[in-house]
């Protein structure tokens, strides 16, 4: 499948996921990945937690801007904030997520540059694909901090990540989501039915630099 066809399937998946949203939660436009030829070569996906003030246009951008202006003929519809952030901020951001992402290339884990004209050479997705933040220093609009909002967002996006995995077929998924979100990530976002007792944490840090909760591989022991 060619890159434009893959991108169209991704953008369509987001629209189909959110099209019935009626408003009321003051949610941002969704965080929709812009897929690159570089990703199709390495198939590495990095998952973060959430955006924080995702290029706000006004109130309830998910409904009033994203859904109300949907253009099915636009292959890249809704990816503009993603491209703008990657192009203007990804190589300068001081956040741990982007320091780690840059290190993948600086240490030659991945070939090439972090990004080219707004196209990452891997795929960046988030656990929470929309949020309700108006100002950087507020917490009520962040699904990582507001449990009620978290449950609303997880309900809205349920099954979306599995659709993305089916479309994008990642060979490696790196989770930078923090241990505190493991349950939401595995049972909510991935839609997999098993308990935390089924999760085995495998040590991948033989030098003991990190705690197991900070860096490990997850093995799921469940008949489901």
Entry keywords:
224 residues; alpha/beta; 11% strand
Structure description:
By secondary structure, the protein is α/β, with parallel strands linked by helices. Helix content is 34%, strand content 11%. The chain has 8 helices and 7 strands; from the N terminus they run ααβαααβββααβαββ. The chain has helices spanning 3-18, 37-42, 61-67, 80-88, 96-106, 147-156, 160-168, 182-189; strands at 44-48, 115-116, 119-120, 123-126, 172-175, 199-202, 217-220. The strands form 3 sheets. It has a 3-stranded parallel sheet, with no helix packed on it. A hairpin with a 2-residue loop joins strand 2 (115-116) and strand 3 (119-120). Helix 1 packs antiparallel against helix 7 (160-168). The longest helix has 16 residues, at 3-18. The model has no long low-confidence stretch (mean pLDDT 89).
- Percent strand equals 5-15%
Please state how the strands of the largest beta sheet are arranged side by side: 4-1-5
Classify the secondary structure makeup into a structural class. alpha/beta
Counting DSSP H or I runs of 4 or more residues, the number of helices is 8
Query: How far apart are the first and last residues' alpha carbons, in Å?
Result: 30 Å
Write the layout of secondary structure elements.
Elements: H1 3-18, H2 37-42, E1 44-48, H3 61-67, H4 80-88, H5 96-106, E2 115-116, E3 119-120, E4 123-126, H6 147-156, H7 160-168, E5 172-175, H8 182-189, E6 199-202, E7 217-220
Parallel strand pairs: 1-4, 1-5
Antiparallel strand pairs: 2-3, 6-7
Helix pairs in contact: 1-7
């Amino acid at each position: 499948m060619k890159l434009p066809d893959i991108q169209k399937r991704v953008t369509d998946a987001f629209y189909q996921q959110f099209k019935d949203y009626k408003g009321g939660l003051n949610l941002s436009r969704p965080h929709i990945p812009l897929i690159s030829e570089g990703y199709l070569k390495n198939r590495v996906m990095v998952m973060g937690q959430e955006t924080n003030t995702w290029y706000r246009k006004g109130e309830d951008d998910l409904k009033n801007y994203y859904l109300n202006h949907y253009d099915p003929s636009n292959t890249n519809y809704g990816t503009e904030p993603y491209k703008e952030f990657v192009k203007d901020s990804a190589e300068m951001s001081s956040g741990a997520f982007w320091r780690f992402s840059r290190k993948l290339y600086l240490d030659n884990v991945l070939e090439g540059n972090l990004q080219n004209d707004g196209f990452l050479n891997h795929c960046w997705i988030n656990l929470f694909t929309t949020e309700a933040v108006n100002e950087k220093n507020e917490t009520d609009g962040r699904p990582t901090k507001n449990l009620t909002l978290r449950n609303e967002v997880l309900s809205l996006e349920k099954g979306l990540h599995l659709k993305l995995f089916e479309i994008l077929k990642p060979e490696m998924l790196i989770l930078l989501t923090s241990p505190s979100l493991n349950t939401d990530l595995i049972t909510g976002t991935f839609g997999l039915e098993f308990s935390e007792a089924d999760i085995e944490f495998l040590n991948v840090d033989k030098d003991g630099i990190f705690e197991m909760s900070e860096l490990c591989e997850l093995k799921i022991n469940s008949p489901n």
